[in-house]
Structure formats: C-alpha cells, structure tokens
Amino acid sequence: MQPSADPSKPAIVLLSGGLDSATVLAIARDRGYSCHALAFDYGQRHRHELEACKRVASTLGAASHRVFSLDATAFAGSALTDNIAVPKDRNETEMTEIPATYVPARNLVFLSVALAYAESLSATDIFIGVNAIDYSGYPDCRPAFIESFTHTANLATKLGVDGNAIRIHTPLMEMTKAQIITIGTELGVDYALTHSCYDPSAEGLACGRCDSCVLRRNGFEQAGIPDPTRYA
Amino acid sequence: MQPSADPSKPAIVLLSGGLDSATVLAIARDRGYSCHALAFDYGQRHRHELEACKRVASTLGAASHRVFSLDATAFAGSALTDNIAVPKDRNETEMTEIPATYVPARNLVFLSVALAYAESLSATDIFIGVNAIDYSGYPDCRPAFIESFTHTANLATKLGVDGNAIRIHTPLMEMTKAQIITIGTELGVDYALTHSCYDPSAEGLACGRCDSCVLRRNGFEQAGIPDPTRYA
Fold first, then answer.
1. What CATH number does residue B119 fall under?
2. Residue B141 lies in a domain
3. Which domain holds residue A30?
4. Which residues of B14-26 are buried (b: 16+ CB within 10 A; e: fewer)?
5. Structure confidence by residue, pLDDT tens digits, A91-144
6. A115, A144, A151 member nearest B105 (Cβ)
7. Which of B45, B44, B25, B47 is nearest to B36 (CA)?
C-alpha cells in the first residue's frame, strides 16, 4: 500500500523502463514524494523501454510522466543507439571494463535536463537509479560522479545558489541487484512490466545474454524471487 | 585571414547567435581548431538567434553546424521561453541579481549535450562564451561553475576517465564587452550578423533596452567601434 503523495514534496524521477528505475520510483513514492517521472527518447534502437516507462509510471502512481526528446546525433557511437554489436555472455567479473553499450555522457545529460525541469517545477529533489555494485563498468554510475554533479548543479541554478538546495537521490547506489529486487517486490513493483534487455526481439522478448539480462537474471535467482521476464 | 583548421584538433563551439559566441568561434578558429558549431532550439520565443547562428557559423568557417532540439517544457518559467516580461532599462550595476531572463540550468544542459556530442566525435575540447564581467547575474556563467562542470565532465565520460582529457575553454571569461568586441573585430567577426536582443521586433530589430542590448551598446561605445546593430 503506497502512502499518498505530498504535493509540497515534488521530485523528478528518471525512468528508463528497467528494473532499477522502477524500484527507485517505488522508493520515492514510499518516502512520500510527489513523483514526476521523466524518460528520454534519444534514438534508442528499440522502443520497448519507452513503453515500459509508461506502464511503470502509471502503475506506481507517478504524479506525471513525460518523455523528452534528445537529438540522437549527440549520442552516436554506442551499441544502444547505432548498429554496433551488443556484448553477450560476459560474466559479472568481466563487467568492469566500459562496454560498447556505453552512451556518451548519458547520465550527465539526463541529470542536467532533469535539473532544468525540476527548477521549472520548483522541485529540488531528483531520483536516479544508478548503482555502483552491478554497474556494468559505466563511469557515470559512480558515487564520485554523483557527488560532483550535485556540486555543479548547485552552482548552475537559481535554486542551488539560494542555499545548496539541489539533492540527487541514489537509493540503489550500494545495493546488489538481489537487494533491489527484494525491496522493490516488498514495495509492490511488478517487474513483469519492466524491460532491461539491450537487444530484445522485435516482440520485446529479452535476449537473456547481454550484460543487462545477465545481471537481472542473476539478481532474481539470488533474491529467490521468480523471474517474470519473458526470454526469447 | 583565418588559419586553416586542423582536422586532428576538433572542438565543439556553442553558438547562441550573439556577439560573445561569435567571438568565441573566431578565437577557436584562430587557435587552429576544426570547429563544430552547436546551437540549441529550446523553444526560444523568437527565432532570430537561430538564424544568426547559421550566418555566423558559415561566415567564420565552422567545419559543421548543427541545431539540436531540446524539449521546451524543461525550460519553462523564463522570460526567454514563456510570456514573461523581459526586464528593460536596467543599468549595469543592477545586473547582479538573477533576472527573469534566467533559463533553468541552461548552460549546464548545453555543456552536457555538447560533451556527449564531443565524445561521439572523439573531441575533448568545448568552447563556450560565458563571461564573469558583463554576465547579467546568471549563476551558470561563473568560473566556479565552469571548474565544477569540468571536474564532473571528466568523471562522466569515457574520454575523461581515460586521463582527465575534457577541457572547457572560456576565452571571454575575464574580458569586458569592449575587449570582446575589439578582439572579435581584429579576428574579422562581422557583428552585423549577430543577434543579442532578448526582445526583438518581429523583423528582428533590437529593442535597445533589455540587459543584453544595454551591455552590447555600451560595449561598442567603450571600444570606440561603430555599432552595426539595427535598433527598432
């Protein structure tokens, strides 16, 4: 049972359609925030994640849900945006190198636009589902990046300059995938509505072999919770 | 006479169509960079500045010129994007307060997207025309913001993580408007092609009374250079 959202506590929650950001939305709602979900259309090769965002936002009680478009040219050169092979069958110990699915400066751009949107709504709180444990090697998921961004955000904005008010919440930072799934399940997240796979079939079935699928599948197994993902 | 651009020195140059960013492009070209000009369509109330960007990029020898679109919803609440009055007839000493023309987190968003674009072109250098002297009170024009952004940018990206390679160039930071105009004139900038006014007529004539017009007009006067601006 979700608590009612407090309109005087607005927050922006970045949604990707995946397991992590859905859990973050449930956590932010559980803390009483009125959650404005924000997803990005940045030329992803497949659209399943944007559909998942819509399902997640509506079932988890977001106050609003928007999809902002970003110019795909800015993010060229990634396996998630271009016709470059998605790495498969890497085990978790191999996931410390930056993989081909890295998208240039993606979290920085997402957080920056979220900050502009937050300020236009007079909100000072932004939630993002980055994770330093099962992070697949991306530089922009580390605590040092989030700390530095927070400092920059407070220097960049009117709300920040007026008293260091901007806060970036990363509730999943120190959790394993199994812990994330356990907490999300307790908060009522239906993971069947989420989409994690980097290389799904045309029908949206998960490949089961990309980094994202491997981490997700192992997480359900370790949590002892049935995996509702539909694999190809 | 401009030096030829070195393709092995690619840089992104943020263009606004105004006097400052045109001068920055001329400076970057003078330093031998192959300049990829980048402008943003973020729902500005008038389009004259995007037309000015095109004129400036082509006459100053940019290697490429792109306009990226950003969702206007993210930048709501500013006199530059919404139907809010542009402040007029402020003198320069009054311009230390953040004015109604402040656009939420604009330079942070512009620099972040420029960084993504830079990385997709394997470029590590970004030029922006921010200025701490005639800065009209915007928080995201100060040296502390640029320093913090540079640190964040190097943590956020593959190129940055590989050796702190990202550099944000702010050649105008410590210049007065008169100095900017003097240097730009020496480098061949035709300021008649630029557009600075926040509140132009439908035909694109400058109002002569907004902060931007006041700073520009005073700059030409102090530089002792004829002001080619067409005022309403």
1. 3.40.50.620
2. yes
3. 6-223
4. bbbbbbbbbbbbb
5. 776 666 676 677 778 899 999 999 999 988 999 999 999 988 766 677 888 899
6. A115
7. B25
Contact across the interface for B116 and A106, Cβ inside 8 Å = yes
ipTM of the complex: 0.87
HSE at residue B49, side-chain half, CA atoms within 13 A, is: 27
Overall number of domains in chain B: 1
- Contacts of residue A157, defined as CB under 8 A and 6 or more positions apart, other chains included, come to A115, A119, A166, B104, B105, B108, B139, B140
Residue among A147, A176, A185 nearest A30 (CA): A185
Q: Catalogue the E-assigned strands of A1-63.
A: 6-14, 33-41
Which single residue is written with the structure tokens 């190097």? B154
Q: Which among A36, A65, A71 is the top mutation candidate for probing chain B, defined by the most B β-carbons within 10 Å of its own β-carbon?
A: A71
Residue A139 covered by a domain: yes
Contact B119 A144 (CB under 8 A): no
Q: Report the alpha-carbon angle B87-B89-B90, nearest 5.
A: 75
Helix (H, G, I), strand (E, B) or coil at A207: coil
Radius of gyration of the CA atoms of chain B, in A: 17
Q: What pTM value is reported for the model?
A: 0.89
Looking at the complex, report in whole angstroms how far the Cα of residue A4 sits from the nearest Cα belonging to chain B. Answer: 26
Put simply, the answer to whether B108 touches A75 (Cβ < 8 Å) is: no
Quick one: tokens of A141? 């998921």
Is residue B231 included in any domain, yes or no? Answer: no
Rounded to a whole number, what is the largest CA-CA distance in chain B?
Answer: 52
**Residue owning tokens 């997640």:** A56
